[in-house]
Amino acid sequence: MAKMGGSANAWQGHSESKRVPEGVWMRCDGCSATLFRKQVEQNDKVCPECNFHFPVTAKERIRQLLDEDTYEEWFSELQPADPLGFDDRRPYPERIKAEQARTGLKEAALVGQGFIKGIRLILGITDSSFIMGSMGSVVGEKLTRAVEEAMRQKLPLVIVSGSGGGARMHEGIFSLMQMAKISTALGRYRAAGGLFISVLTHPTMGGVAASFASLGDIILAEPKALIGFAGPRIIEQTVRVQLPEGFQTSEFLLEHGFVDRIVHRRDLRSMIAQLINFAAP
């Protein structure tokens, strides 16, 4: 019996030594395939089976789009305040600190300048990993300053939106007013002859979709991105109608004229460069 027990223990140890480390595999949200995580990451976080585009962080997006070591971040010193003393499950300042520690970001947007294939431009990105990329006062201020800098320096402007949270309820009307503030700045930029390319990714919703994300001179979208104001479930419950298949996807919006082109992530960098060159005087 002792000999059998030893054999069993040896088998158990062998099994544990062969156990696959946690995080090596992942499941695709598009086709449910089990994927090798490293392969997905090497493919710009796109499923090799069905081309489902996984969300990427703002820092990953910068690496994918810009020429290496050309990004210069602006306005990183801006920090959110707590104008309403908002407290749901935890005070708003505590939530901000927790998000900063978890994501390594100070807020849900990064803005700055960089180069795409040698073309200098102003870049803004909202990151859905930080309170769902929701737009508070700092996000609005950063994006507005980026627009103003693009106008002052006469540079093209690209904003990549990944905001599933829309306007940030924790800041109330201070958040909602950012929609008008950024839109007004974009109006001045357009009147001055600026080029604004808006890139919509999964998800782009709420006040972001209802303001600056929809105001691009050219609107690009990644495949199968969810884009809209209220989510489809809320719309169905409110108006009590069955929505069309694919409603609020980038494919549906392209068909109905809201989006100019759907671009695979691997082609986005080249497409932006081509559009800027085409629009150059």
Structure in words:
36% of the residues are buried. Helices cover 40% and strands 15% of the residues. The protein is α/β, with parallel strands linked by helices and 281 residues long. It is globular and about 50 Å long. It starts with a helix and ends with a helix. The chain folds into two domains: 1-54, no CATH class; 55-279, 2-enoyl-CoA Hydratase, Chain A, domain 1. The strands form two sheets. Strands 3-4-5-6-7-8-9 form a seven-stranded mixed sheet, sandwiched between helices. A two-stranded antiparallel ribbon has the order 1-2. α5 (137-153) packs parallel to α6 (173-191). It has ten helices and nine strands. It has helices at 2-17, 37-42, 58-65, 92-103, 137-153, 173-191, 206-209, 232-239, 250-255, 265-279; strands at residues 25-27, 34-36, 72-74, 109-116, 119-126, 157-161, 196-200, 218-221, 261-262. β5 (119-126), α5 (137-153) and β6 (157-161) form a beta-alpha-beta unit.
